[in-house]
Design a protein that fits this description.
2 copies of one chain form a homodimer. With 213 residues, chain A is an alpha/beta fold. Helices cover 38% and strands 17% of the residues of chain A. Chain A is built from 8 helices and 9 strands. In chain A, helix 5 links the parallel strand 3 and strand 4. The radius of gyration of chain A is 20 Å and the shape is globular. At the A-B interface, helix 1, helix 5, strand 9 and helix 8 of A face helix 1, helix 5, strand 9 and helix 8 of B. The structure holds nicotinamide-adenine-dinucleotide (2 copies). One nicotinamide-adenine-dinucleotide sits at the interface of chains B and A. Chain A binds a DNA duplex (30 and 30 nucleotides) through helix 1 and helix 3.
DNA sequence: TCGAATTAGTGAATAATTTCACGACATTTT
DNA sequence: AAAATGTCGTGAAATTATTCACTAATTCGA
């Protein structure tokens, strides 16, 4: 639960990646893996990987590497993969529909439970097994949900955010270009696809031709 | 063109954000803006904003702030907003379709010119004004396109990547979970939506309740 | 069993990024 | 015209992240 002793943020961001990759190795039946192999496959420096793992203690064995099953089990606990995290999605448009059709639970403890939209034509539909409710029902339908995915038009973003926060949401994955304002206890991660595309183009034009992602 | 003198990567990643925000201010008719105002709106420390701008010289005026029109013009040039960058998209599924329906050109110099898919049912369609071709036609249709958006199933990612690189693509925005392998001169930016969601949940559970995105 | 090869873990160095805090100057007010 | 206020640009400090390079432990092949 609490502030898990000083794991650097950069490390924390890589944990889900490690988890998924280990999961794949496990499915493939691999029993062991070295930081060098992980490095090649994930394009992350092997020293960085070892350092990241070391924040959690000595998980490997010298001369051998890491036991995949053990490591996977460890990360499963660390990432709370055993308890499911329910999520709601607001705005069943182009992006929102794509997300509803995607099974996040596959590699993940998260599940989109319901969706909301203002468009009556969409209300009542079931997309990817997820029912779409009218946004007016938000307050009454929400119960113990702390994570929301926001895919409404930019103009609606702040208003919907305020309502979500009011309903007890403390984490928002925001796909709108709006830089929304929230109280201190609410965490927002922005994914700004237009910026990502523009950024890629900028890096291509202005940065030397090699590594990094 | 070339390695624009040592702009830190962290700064470079924020440039498109600044650009879009300044553009909005300009549309709203604002003539001036201070780093403090930008900070409040974009949730980036004002010292960071001033530092970022300072890499390009003295763009502001003490006691006044920044002239929106001037700054916008400056960033337009810096981000090469005058020349259009053509882009292709591979994989017209859930995500791919969402992107085709989105007008990236609105705030952006990028335009998706064509899309490709392996599914004959999709070939010939026009989505968001963008024609969908069969993936077999990739090699013959591609001409002077250096940027690709990859939204195919994970199993296809490496194979398609190899073909794209062969066709001269030097930048890939990769939405598949695959960590694709490319030659040194090709830049890949990964956007891993499942990881982003899982990461948000992890941060909510393990990090103190305040700032940062 | 021995010796070569492998590989984790980590102190220390380096690099990158953010933030503080203040001087210099421009604007605005009175 | 002077004073008060606002705000940039930036050295320096602080923080955060990455990478080097070595030691110690273990494995593996002969
Ligand atoms: N589609 C993309 O590729 C893309 C790319 C970059 C950014 N975005 C951003 O993502 C967001 C969604 O994009 P999209 O293309 O899916 O838009 P969209 O217009 O297709 O979907 C928006 C949905 O939100 C619903 N909506 C409107 N007001 C609402 C409200 N008050 N409450 C609940 N639902 C409401 C609409 O009915 C619609 O279904 C936008 O902010 C857009 O800028 C999208
Ligand atoms: N949809 C999401 O919300 C979501 C979330 C996270 C990750 N992703 C990833 O994004 C990618 C796309 O997801 P999606 O939901 O759009 O999948 P999808 O199955 O809906 O779409 C994939 C499309 O690629 C096409 N395709 C298959 N093989 C091809 C080939 N060789 N050449 C060209 N086209 C080919 C298919 O015909 C299909 O139209 C996947 O890798 C997925 O893991 C998607």
């Amino acid at each position: 639960m609490g502030n898990q002793h000083k794991i650097p943020q950069a490390t924390a961001k890589r944990l889900p990646l490690y988890y998924r990759f280990l999961n794949n190795l496990h499915i493939q039946g691999k029993a062991r893996v070295s930081s060098k192999q992980l490095s090649d496959a994930m394009k992350i420096d092997s020293a960085t990987i070892r350092r990241d793992f070391s924040y959690f203690g000595a998980l490997g064995k010298k001369g051998y590497g890491y036991n995949v099953e053990y490591l996977l089990g460890f990360f499963r606990k660390t990432l709370d993969q055993d308890e499911n995290t329910p999520v709601i999605l607001i705005g069943v448009g182009n992006l929102g529909t794509a997300f509803l059709n995607y099974n996040f639970t596959k590699n993940n403890n998260t599940k989109i439970e319901m969706a909301f939209d203002a468009d009556h034509a969409k209300v009542g539909e079931i997309i990817g097994n997820i029912p779409v409710h009218h946004i007016d029902e938000l307050e009454e339908m929400m119960e113990n949900i702390s994570v929301a995915i926001l895919t409404v038009p930019v103009t609606e973003a702040q208003g919907i955010t305020d309502r979500l926060v009011e309903c007890g949401v403390t984490g928002i994955l925001n796909f709108t270009p709006a830089r929304i304002t929230v109280p201190e206890h609410v965490r927002v991660h922005h994914i700004d696809l237009a910026v990502e595309l523009q950024s890629l183009v900028y890096f291509m034009k202005h940065y030397p031709l090699d590594d990094e992602g």
